[in-house]
Amino acid sequence: MQKISPYKRFLSYFYPVRIHTASGSNNPVLELYLYRGRWQLATIDALYSDGNKYTPLVRAFKEVKTKLQGVKKILVLGTGLGSAVQIFHSMGYKAQFTLVDNDAVILKWAMELMNEQLLSDITPVCADAKTFITDNKETCDMLIVDIFQGRVVPGFVTGNNFLQECRRHINTGGIFIMNYIAIREAEWANVKRSIDQVFPTVKVLNKGLNRIIIATV
Length: 217
Description:
This protein is an alpha/beta fold. The chain has 2 domains: 6-49, no CATH class; 51-216, Vaccinia Virus protein VP39 (Rossmann fold), CATH 3.40.50.150. It has 7 helices and 11 strands. The N and C termini lie far apart (40 Å).
């Protein structure tokens, strides 16, 4: 990753400064911004990461804060730039993370930009989430799904098979978190029903179009 000039760092405290543009292995346009000391990852129509200010995960972690002390292994499907790691650490907790993303460029940026003190807690995996969750046998205390194509959640993410596999990977008493954008209310109603059929206890936090789903096992 290129060195950032003091001038660009100064400007970034007033507005997002684009640092790098690339074509990812699964995203035709990826843009890396610096804004107020935080790295942001964006595509043409979506913001995928915002350091430790990434709202969906900030809200989710605060909602389950009383349980975070017991969370020691976290699986993240759809990593962005590793906001889950940064937020969890900023709240004073420590865990082992497996970060899964099907875009090699995103995963590379996430690891390059991560605080070096956190790297030993992270296992990066470049893989398709659907394949990974089927083939992988390890369990975790928290599973986070933050998978998008632009602003759209791929259909397999809310399918019964994928959700059942997610539940199978979570230890008893563990936590499932999903970030979803409800573009059509009727579609969201179907998604909610699918999640309710798999997880015994489900809570939804609303923020604009975002639906932050928190379930327990």
